[in-house]
Design goal:
The protein has 8 helices and 11 strands. It is α/β, with parallel strands linked by helices. It folds into 2 domains: 121 residues, Rossmann fold, CATH 3.40.50; 95 residues, Arc Repressor Mutant, subunit A. It is globular and about 55 Å long.
Length: 233
């Protein structure tokens, strides 16, 4: 994979050093921030991390909590964010996914698994091949993968990288029912191991953004017991 620029936001010197070494071993350029204020400054338009390809974000940070930073990152743009935290409660994971995190890994973590998740997230957010960048249109809903532009009935809809991949999957086969395991493996590009919280949360986020853009339309249909599909529009 092409080398990427990664911002590591982690207050533990030992964990930060471990992550930096692992990422550099994979050929990535790494920028670090030891607290929330430093991360905020690095991510500012004139900061050294303003154009990073991925943010690796701890939650329990000095000065500014990681959840606050995540919300700020999402308001500012669509850079992929992987949350890395000792908070292992399911509701925390779901809350962070709803805030816009693309993935969530709990501490203590397996370094090989974390590295694989980072590479998968970078791969998902990388520019796609020409065959995958052709505009997709389904009634009033359209997606141009080349520009990451989504419109519903003329209204612009801003989506994260993962939400774009999810919508692309559904738009490529309107009316087809996709199970949660199939969605996970197609969008996250890794085997499904039984935890469908990420799929449910990202579907909910995507539906919420589409409904917010055009309340009268609800393009995604839940097929109970089977999965999700794009309804006729």
């Amino acid at each position: 994979m092409t080398a990427s620029r990664v911002l590591v936001v982690e207050d533990s010197p030992d964990v930060r050093a471990l992550l930096v070494e692992a990422l550099r071993d994979e050929g990535h350029e790494v920028i670090t921030a030891a607290d929330g204020l430093a991360a905020r400054a690095a991510l500012a338009p004139d900061g050294e991390a303003s154009d990073v390809d991925l943010v690796l974000l701890d939650l329990m940070l000095p000065h500014v909590d990681g959840s606050v930073l995540l919300a700020e990152i999402r308001r500012a743009g669509e850079v992929p964010v992987l949350v890395l935290s000792a908070k292992d409660a399911v509701y925390t994971k779901v809350d962070m996914l709803r805030l816009g995190a693309d993935d969530y890994v709990t501490k203590p973590f397996d370094l090989a698994e974390l590295t694989a998740r980072i590479e998968a997230l970078l791969r998902r957010s990388a520019p796609r091949a020409a065959a995958e960048t052709a505009p997709l249109v389904h009634g009033p809903l359209s997606l141009d993968p080349a520009t990451a532009r989504v419109q519903l009935d003329g209204a612009e809809v801003a989506l994260t990288a993962t939400e774009l991949r999810l919508l692309h999957l559904l738009l490529a086969s309107p009316g087809q029912v996709f199970s949660r395991p199939r969605i996970y493996e197609a969008v996250w590009e890794e085997p499904f191991v039984g935890d469908d919280a990420a799929v449910k949360t990202h579907i909910s986020n995507l539906r919420g953004k589409l409904r917010e853009a055009v309340p009268a339309l609800d393009p995604i249909e839940t097929v109970w017991g089977l999965g999700y599909r794009l309804r006729a529009l």
